[in-house]
Amino acid sequence: MREDVEIRFCGSGGQGLLLSAHILAHALILEGRKVAQSQSYEPTSRGGVSRSDIIVSDGMVDYPLATALDHLLILDQIAADTSDGVIKPGATVLVDATRVPTPPEGEFSLYVLPFSETAKAVGNQRVANMIALGALAGLSDICSRETLEAAVRTDTPAKFLELNIEALDRGYRMVAAEADTQAAV
Question: Hey, which CATH number is domain 5-184, 3.40.920.10, 3.30.1540.10, 3.40.50.2300, 3.40.50.720?
Fold first, then answer.
């Protein structure tokens, strides 16, 4: 039996973090995992801190809030310090290169990636969350790409489906390119 895996998506309201977390939770359920998801956001619709925790297990999940993060995704500086003290040594931390100029420091693997810049290149800044989701899934191998794409197809409105699939693909390609660069060094 595997240990529980704790994942947090955080940033500012309006970045689609709750949707990304929902999609990942759905994909994990499709793969037969037990999942608890919680969310917290400030009452402002845009700009306040937004966060969603996912606890993944092969058995029952005892507690729905993260206490020892294995994976952390930060899309805005406003949320950069909200996870201090709960990041496990050896965890994977992904931050947006533009929107998180001062990432957290610690004994974890830090990936500073151009999520918002890539979203602009795709043509819609609102898909930075999906790019980041693809990057997280590519780095963590938490679920299969096929299952994650199936969850995106189910949970995304039809008019944004192809854009979200492309954004997810960009995230996977982003971390594959990062791995190729590190292997060449």
Answer: 3.40.920.10
